[in-house]
Amino acid sequence: MNYPIWEITTFGGGSLIALISVLHVYISHLAVGGGAFLWLTDLKGFRDNNPAIHDYVRKHTWFFLLLTMVFGGLTGVGIWFIIALVQPAATSSLIHAFVFGWAIEWVFFLGEITALLVYHYQFDKLGRKNRLLIAFLYFLFAWLSLVIINGILSFMLTPGQWLKTQNFWDGFFNPTYFPSLFFRSSVAAMIAGLFGYVTVVFLKTGDFRDQMLKYCSKWLLYPMAGVVLFGIWYYFAVPADIRQTAFSLNPQTGPFVIILFVASVLIFLAGIYFSVKSRPSVQKAVTFVLVIIGLLWMGGFEYLREIARKPYVINQFMYSTSVKQSDVSLLDTEGVLTHARWSAVKAITPENQVEAGRELFNLQCLSCHTVNGIRNDIVARTVEYPYMGIMALLDGQGKVMTYMPPFMGTAAERKALASYIVTELNDNAILEEPEPYALHPWEDVDIPAYNKKKDQYLLLAWNDLGMHCLSDADAWFVILPPANTIEAQLIKRGPVPEIVSDGVQLSYAVQKGFENPSAHVDFWKYSKLTFGVQLEENVGLGGLGMNGDMVWEDDLGGFIAKMIPVVPYPDEGAYNPFPAFTIEAKDAESGEILASTRVVAPVSTEFGCRNCHGGEWRWKGVSGMTDETAIRILEVHDRINGTDLLAQAEDGKPRLCQECHADPAVGAEGKPDVLNFSAAMHGWHANYMVFDGAAACAMCHPANLKGNTRCARGIHSKVDVTCIDCHGTLQEHALGLLRGEEAKPSAKRLMANLTSKQVESVDEINPRIPWLKEPDCLNCHVDFEKPEPGASGYNQWTEGPEELYRIRTDNAGIRCPACHGSTHAEYPASNAYSPLHDNIQPLQYTGHPYPIGANMKCEACHIIKMEDPIHHENMMRVMRNPVH
Q1: What is the Cα–Cα distance from 196 to 201, expressed in whole angstroms?
Q2: Burial class (CB in 10 A: 0-12, 13-18, 19+), 216
Q3: From 248's CA, which of 57, 225, 513, 536 has a CA 20 to 30 Å away?
């Protein structure tokens, strides 16, 4: 924040650091290992009394001096130059923390230079003792330079107790100091042998060349054992959370792990090749390739070490954005631009928003990303995301994928950065919320005939869910199939009404225009692949078509038609998420119609995925998921989880999400180590949601008051009871689901940054099982009374399925939704498409849209007036929320 930004957008400062530092580190390890190589090889020449070895060492020293002292010295200066330009704040911190260490290292470096120059230029003049002493001193000084530099390099990854004490020695002898030192010393010896080949292959004497090739192979192969053993020690010395971030979460790690492994194998094989008889004509070419492989090996290791530090440049102290961790809260409160000394923009206005976004991009993104560049190109990574998707990425940055630093700054600064990325870098438009749908109301529906004086039966029917959501991207994946379930109870009227179960047959039939759902969705083309059964067109997973018979179920105390495959796309006309079914009850013997009614089977394809992932609506530009949106979702899933779902779908093999993620909604057991579907979806997206309150729910679910469904149409929505009053905020809702899966490691990761406003500690949140443990109506309606002000159903879940609203019965065996309406459509309901549509049965039987029997109209079933609240307490009263 205190330094100007070097704006190199195409190549990237990180790549420049990598280019220079990998070359320097490669050569500096040669300087350490090569020092031992010179000393011990010269000693071998004296012990073997072999002048040829001395002659080889003298020639090798000249090559060694040019490479390590000249080229190594230049790249060393280059590193200081480039890091001071790209990461000046981190460079300053390292200098101030280890100024004594740098001074010592420069003393050792001076001794190293002096010893090598004396050794080279006085090689033939020095006696055995003095020459070996000078060679040993060079090696010692070179290795001591490594001893010092290693302390600072390993500190950047694992600063240890220095974070608390700021003590030099605590930082220097940090948790990875010794494993790193021994690992690098082994690597240095291995590289010495590798570069030994470079001069040996140019020797003319065949036998001596073969002898020295085998000698160099020992330097290459023997240290390999130390590299492996100390590498394992090094790996496990790194804290587990850093290992998880680097090797499990960061997708950049994989290629470099492969490079390191493949290069190690090739180096090992090359050592074996040179240990046996090999043709001189091939040796030079192999040596050249081997030097390149060694460089790749070093680059792979150094990249892994750098990646392991992400999102920090100095772990737990300074982010890669050059912001100290301790300053984040201040910047979030007061803003980044206010404290950025070299920023041209200090306060954001509508006129300078894009310019402010560019400043914020340079401050927070440019250290790792390029613009249309060679590595981590921000344009390629964001071009497919709409504005809300970019906002979500910024909001969730660093929370789950912890290899990225969090976005720092105010909400206005987040919007400015998102605006810059969307408009300037990607040339897209800004849309701050989903486009409103121009809803086309229907004509009022006909209420079925009913004569309260003559009719002997009352037929009550409902949908088991307030809204069935249908993912119609079957060629790519399936979340939920077309599968609405209708239930019904037939009541025989009388002074003591009866629930009829025998001697009758109930049937259902969809309204005209919805008889052919297979013409509008591809579910039937892929049902064999996704659900393991090849269905006839227009037949659902329950074996039922668009019309048929209902069956009695004792456990439910009513009739049921399971998983009817209705979709919201009529053959002709506008989008209709509320198709109606006609339900008839007939005498089983005579076929006489005893009662008839109609019921809505709500179904929506208004999945909000496109809001953040991009894409348009599939069906006539109104609803449904396009291929574009589905592909982007699979791309993200594959990148984050290491799956190949997109490739499988492109190969004609789409998958059901619940094959891996357990889900009671479709009866899927999933995989034991994978989060259930609800926990995974809500837990992940809660970390990225920009909006608060019910608006967050409406981003994904078809509940947006300007959307094409508007599913929350019950009385609760009309008295300002929203999703969060029962389920909690999105973060709270996710926490309950994740607590139910807490034994799985990914649950803890998703919970780490989620908070609750209604409880003090996450430990106080009661675990939930999706679809089976839900908010209980009686949490707020205690003893069926009016809720107290501020009442909330959150964190008090039903204990079993029998307590669910859609399953529960009253004292007479009547199911709750039979009288009160379906979930989220409780009477009196207000359907945005038609004011009567969701109130058909109360209007049919009582003439008003209130729950069946409300306002003391017990004669709907009882024929006579009743004086006692048989069904439940507090029912004998006037409706609290009258409507007209």
Answers
A1: 9
A2: buried
A3: 225
CA distances from 767 to 228, 722, 764, 796 (A): 44, 22, 9, 10
304 DSSP assignment: H
DSSP state of 346: S
Given a contact cutoff of 8 angstroms between Cβ atoms, the answer to whether 874 and 785 are in contact is yes
The Cα 362–Cα 342 span in angstroms is: 11
The number of angstroms, rounded, from the C-alpha of 690 to the middle of its chain's C-alpha atoms is 15
pLDDT band at 252 (very low <50, low <70, confident <90, very high): confident
CA separation for the pair 545, 524 (Å, rounded): 13
> To the nearest whole number, what is the mean pLDDT of the chain?
92
pLDDT tens for residues 555-573?
A: 999 999 999 999 999 998 7
User: Is 0.85 surpassed by the pTM of this model?
Assistant: yes
Q: Write the DSSP symbol of residue 247.
A: I
Q: With a cut of 70, say whether residue 490 has pLDDT above it.
A: yes
Which candidate, 38, 58, 153, 140, places its Cα nearest to that of 97? 153
pLDDT in tens, 184-224: 999 999 999 999 999 998 888 778 988 998 999 999 889 99
| 817 touches 805 (CB < 8 A) | yes
Contacting residues for 781 by C-beta, under 8 A, at least 6 apart: 787
The dihedral region occupied by 827, where left means phi > 0, alpha psi between -120 and 50, and beta the remainder, is beta
CA–CA gap between residue 331 and residue 590 (Å, rounded): 79
Q: Are 508 and 548 in contact (CB under 8 A)?
A: yes
CA gap 291, 545 in Å, rounded: 70
| Closest to 29 measured CA to CA, from 134, 186, 226 | 186
At 850, list the tokens: 């209130």
Residues in CB range of 128: below 8 A, 6 or more apart: 46
H-state helical runs in 770-884: 777-780, 816-820, 840-846, 859-862
Other C-beta atoms closer than 10 Å to the C-beta of 15 total 17
Joined together, the tokens standing for residue 482 give 């077309």
DSSP 752: T
Reported as a pLDDT band with limits 50, 70 and 90, residue 452 is: confident
pLDDT at 273 over 80: no
Q: Are 828 and 794 in contact (CB under 8 A)?
A: no
